[in-house]
């Protein structure tokens, strides 16, 4: 068993009387690709938001890379090495693609008020380096040549990939993708699947994603966790989960076997 | 262009210089048509047109290295030389004469404030309705340290306290604190920035409207303190409604005057207004330079990111509180410097100058000009400051002279700004001169290309190898 990069114990979130996430235990081994699936309203995004510090958990513990990050603010979590994308694209629309990526490097750059105003050589070098690295990331995400386009002028798929480039700019160990293939056609989704595998292979990233497209989930994941009504329903390899009767019952519903078949 | 029957494509196919020349000629002719019935033909109007045409029509940008700076430097020259030709310029229809140099100083000070507020509102997107407070802090810091305010009085009538620091041209026996006003510009800014941080830390957690309401309150509280500060715990701190007058005058002293020809004392110099005007230009240039540099820096990107989407910004590793507080502090700093300079210029710090109206006024300058764009903000600030200082009064005079209307136009000042703001929001929602990025959205359009076509092949190879 590989070492564990992210370990979540008894994570719980209540909104008033509603229990959105109910005492979930969860593990992500280093350099693996893990998918989180579940019907709408199962608490997947809430779970993500707790991991990244957007929500403070009601109870539970999140240990990332050996440190307790429970309840830390989002920027601190990001600085520890968790990068993320959003379910509904949240780019900085009135910035160029390049600037978007450079924002992701914020915590790795040092330029302060005075050094920026005086344009010290150190800051100039740093900026030039950041620019070059941002171009590299754009190229990696097939956005070469789009650097000067404004984010909101990019095509939908390009925006999705720009979000990934921006998240990669934070130099994460763990990349969280929240429904990355939503709105993509089958060809685009399968290209994206390949892209995710490539990220792991080339950059040694660990990836955790929320995904609805079963083909993507089954094609790329090492492990799959199923959430339903805020509880962990099942956990295992894609084929284990696929054949778990509780999952078929709760998540895939009646006619599940043919359901997975048609999605593939 | 299509409005006058020239198709868009044909217009853009023309060489740049031809296009610029056509615009210049059309503008010139229009101006002539508008001007003629009011003031007849005035050669200075023609000169103005010639200068602008010379600066903006020729393709200066093609000259290497210095080319792109020529229009800007030319404009700067035009502004710097303003005191020499201001009084001989033609009369603008309805608005009256061009501003005097004295009005010009106020316009520049307002421009500086607007640039400072632009960092807060335009860059970082934090709505600050109490900006005048920082202006007041700057003004009072200058007043405290360059007047007889804290002199106190001994039973025999002599001053109790006296502290002098590089105070040139002040009688050393004069009571009170007297620090050179040059240093006080900086002190005013730093004080304002510190208070800005102090107030920012608890309030900047709030978003949008809530922040606006808190800053509104803050902008009301400080002037009240200034007004009632003649007896704070038994101390006369602000001299109450009378304010603190007079302040020490600014200048370089006799030594530097003799050695370098720098003015010894602005107040008693024969070209006093021009000296204040040129100094204000230097201050505005510094503010402009800092604004532009910060906009292109790591911090500037973080501000715009926060303006666009706070949640995404913090997910990218930007500490929200710290970054917002910095924007607040920098905005406050420039507001403080502007306040200190204004106090020195008018030789007084008076609570009546720091009303809520004024915060709104500066905000209107920023919005009218184009939030986030320093050039737009400069134009907006100069124009509104001119209306406030002279333009509206002139309009009133013109109306009563020509139409027999007895309207006290300055009384309707805020109504007029309100209408202007409405019109701008309706027809140019991003301001008169919007930030380039906001304009570009419309020009670039949307690219539509398939996903992952380039990487797909290598990716399959990479995926297969493990």
Could you characterize the architecture of this molecule?
The complex is a heterodimer of chains A (about 260) and B (about 475). Chain A has about 260 residues and is an alpha/beta fold. Chain A has two domains: about 1-80 and about 170-265, 3-Layer(aba) Sandwich (Rossmann fold), CATH 3.40.50.300; about 95-170, no CATH class. Chain A is built from eleven helices and ten strands. Chain A has helices at about 45-50, 75-80, 95-105, 115-120, 120-140, 155-170, 185-205, 215-220, 240-245, 245-250, 255-264; strands spanning about 5-15, 20-30, 35, 60-65, 65-70, 80-85, 175-180, 205-210, 225-230, 230-235. In chain A, the strands form two sheets. Chain A has a six-stranded mixed beta sheet, sandwiched between helices. In chain A, helix 7 (about 185-205) links the parallel strand 7 and strand 8 (about 205-210). In chain A, helix 3 packs parallel to helix 6, helix 5 crosses helix 6 and helix 7 runs parallel beside helix 8. The radius of gyration of chain A is 19 Å and the shape is globular. Chain A starts with a strand and ends with a helix. Mean pLDDT of chain A is about 90; it is low at about 255-264. By secondary structure, chain B is an all-alpha fold. Chain B folds into two domains: about 1-80, no CATH class; about 90-445, no CATH class. In chain B, about 65% of the residues lie in helices and about 0% in strands. Chain B has helices at about 10-15, 15-40, 45-55, 70-80, 80-85, 100-125, 130-145, 180-205, 210-230, 255-260, 270-295, 300-310, 310-315, 320-345, 355-370, 375-400, 415-425, 435-445, 455-465; strands at about 160-165, 175-180. A two-stranded parallel ribbon of chain B has the order 1-2. The longest helix of chain B is centred in the C-terminal third of the chain and has 29 residues, at about 375-400. The radius of gyration of chain B is 26 Å and the shape is globular. Residues about 440-465 of chain B have low confidence and may be disordered. The interface between A and B is large, with 62 and 51 residues.
């Amino acid at each position: 068993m590989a070492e564990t990069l992210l370990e979540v114990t008894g994570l719980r979130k209540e909104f008033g009387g509603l229990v959105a996430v109910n005492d979930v235990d969860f593990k992500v081994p280093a350099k693996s690709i893990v998918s989180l699936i579940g019907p709408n309203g199962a608490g997947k995004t809430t779970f993500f938001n707790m991991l990244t510090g957007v929500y403070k958990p009601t109870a539970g513990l999140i240990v990332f890379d050996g440190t307790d990050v429970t309840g830390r603010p989002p920027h601190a979590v990001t600085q520890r090495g968790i990068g993320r994308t959003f379910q509904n694209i949240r780019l900085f629309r009135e910035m160029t693609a390049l600037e978007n990526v450079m924002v992701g490097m914020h915590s790795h750059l040092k330029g302060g008020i005075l050094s920026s105003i005086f344009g010290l050589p150190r800051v100039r070098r740093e900026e030039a380096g950041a620019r070059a690295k941002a171009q590299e990331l754009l190229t990696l995400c097939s956005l070469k040549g789009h650097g000067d386009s404004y984010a909101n002028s990019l095509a939908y798929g390009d925006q999705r990939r720009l979000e990934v480039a921006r998240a990669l700019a934070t130099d994460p160990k763990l990349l969280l993708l929240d429904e990355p293939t939503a709105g993509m056609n089958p060809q685009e989704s399968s290209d994206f699947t390949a892209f995710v595998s490539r990220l792991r292979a080339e950059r040694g990233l660990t990836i955790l994603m929320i995904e609805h497209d079963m083909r993507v989930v089954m094609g790329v994941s090492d492990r799959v966790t199923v959430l339903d009504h805020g509880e962990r329903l099942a956990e295992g390899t894609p084929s284990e989960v696929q054949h778990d009767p509780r999952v078929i019952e709760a998540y895939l519903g009646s006619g599940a076997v043919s359901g997975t078949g048609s999605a593939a | 262009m299509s409005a006058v029957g020239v198709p868009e494509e044909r217009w853009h196919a023309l060489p740049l210089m031809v296009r610029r020349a056509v615009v210049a000629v059309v503008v010139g002719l229009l101006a002539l048509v508008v001007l003629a019935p009011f003031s007849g033909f005035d050669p200075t109007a023609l000169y103005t047109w010639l200068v602008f045409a010379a600066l903006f029509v020729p393709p200066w940008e093609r000259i290497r290295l210095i080319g792109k700076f020529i229009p800007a430097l030319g404009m700067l020259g035009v502004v710097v030389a303003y005191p020499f030709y201001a009084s001989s310029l033609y009369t603008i229809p309805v608005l009256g004469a061009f501003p005097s140099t004295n009005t010009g100083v106020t316009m520049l000070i307002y421009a500086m404030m607007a640039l400072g507020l632009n960092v807060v509102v335009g860059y970082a997107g934090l709505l600050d309705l109490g900006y005048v407070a920082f202006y007041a802090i700057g003004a009072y810091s200058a007043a405290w340290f360059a007047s007889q305010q804290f002199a106190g009085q001994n039973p025999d009538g002599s001053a109790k306290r006296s502290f002098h620091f590089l105070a040139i041209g002040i009688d050393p026996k004069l009571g009170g604190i007297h620090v050179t006003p040059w240093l006080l510009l900086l002190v005013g800014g730093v004080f304002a920035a510190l208070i800005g941080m102090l107030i920012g830390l608890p309030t900047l957690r709030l978003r949008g409207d809530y922040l606006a309401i808190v800053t509104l309150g803050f902008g009301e509280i400080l002037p009240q303190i200034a007004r009632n500060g003649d007896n704070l715990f038994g101390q006369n701190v602000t001299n109450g409604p009378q304010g603190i007058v007079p302040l020490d005058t600014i200048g370089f002293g006799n030594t530097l005057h003799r050695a370098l020809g720098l003015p010894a004392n602005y107040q008693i110099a024969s070209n006093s207004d021009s000296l204040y005007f040129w100094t204000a230009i230097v201050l505005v240039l510094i503010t402009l330079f800092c604004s532009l540099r910060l906009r292109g820096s790591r911090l500037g990107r973080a501000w715009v990111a926060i303006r666009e989407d706070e949640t995404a910004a913090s997910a990218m590793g930007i500490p929200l509180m710290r970054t917002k507080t910095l924007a607040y502090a920098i905005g406050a700093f420039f507001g403080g410097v502007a306040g200190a300079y204004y106090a020195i210029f008018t030789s007084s710090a008076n609570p009546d100058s720091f009303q809520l109206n004024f915060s709104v006024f500066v905000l209107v300058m920023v919005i009218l000009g184009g939030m986030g764009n320093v050039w737009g903000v400069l134009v907006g600030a100069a124009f509104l400051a001119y209306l406030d200082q002279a333009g509206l009064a002139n309009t009133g005079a013109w109306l009563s002279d020509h139409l027999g209307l007895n309207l006290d136009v300055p009384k309707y000042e805020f109504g007029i700004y309100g209408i202007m703001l409405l019109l701008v929001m309706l027809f140019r929602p991003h301001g008169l001169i919007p930030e380039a990025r906001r304009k570009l959205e419309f020009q670039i359009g949307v690219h539509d290309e398939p996903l992952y076509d380039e990487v797909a092949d290598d990716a399959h190879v990479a995926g297969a190898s493990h």
